[in-house]
Amino acid sequence: MTVLLVALGGGLGAVTRYLAGRYVHSYRSFPMATFLVNVVGCLVLGLLSGLSMPAYAFALFGTGFCGGLTTYSTFAVESVGLMRIRRALVSLVYVVASVALGLTAAWLGFRLTS
């Protein structure tokens, strides 16, 4: 049953990420959609981690939805892609901002619910 909950949540998260990619556009080569879903995913997972919730609910929302929503592989490929097209400064800002704001969002979410 837990595997089905993770799959359902993961599917919903992946669809949400896909829609973000369609409707949130890059700004001067900065990959806003991936940046946004990763930071929001960190905040949501931080919030969920601070709550007392049943394991099945965390499987659905934390592991499933947040896992499907966020994407390290796309973040890495976009960072390297920016370097390949000689946008090193944009790539550096993207990496630093993603890590700094992702950690801050996770900490804030956890802090708000624990």
Percentage of residues in DSSP E strands: under 5%
* H/I helix tally: 5
Largest sheet geometry: none
Mean pLDDT, to the nearest integer, reads 97
Helix content: over 70%
Spell the H/E element sequence: HHHHH
Decide which structural class fits the backbone. mainly alpha
Rg over CA atoms: 15 Å
Write down how many β-strands occur, each being a DSSP E stretch of 2 or more residues: 0
For the record, give the distance between the C-alpha atoms at the N and C termini, rounded to a whole number. 28 Å
- How would you sum up the global shape? globular
Taking pLDDT < 50 over at least 5 consecutive residues as the criterion, the unreliable ranges are none
Short description:
The chain is mostly helical and 114 residues long. It has five helices and no strands. It has helices at residues 2-23, 32-50, 55-69, 72-84, 88-113.
Give your account of this protein's structure.
- By secondary structure, this protein is an all-alpha fold.
- Helix content is 83%, strand content 0%.
- Helix 2 (32-50) packs parallel to helix 5 and helix 4 (72-84) runs antiparallel to helix 5 (88-113).
- The mean pLDDT is 97.
List keywords for this structure.
83% helix, 114 residues, mainly alpha
Topology, element by element:
Layout: H1 2-23, H2 32-50, H3 55-69, H4 72-84, H5 88-113
Helix pairs in contact: 1-2, 1-3, 2-3, 2-5, 4-5
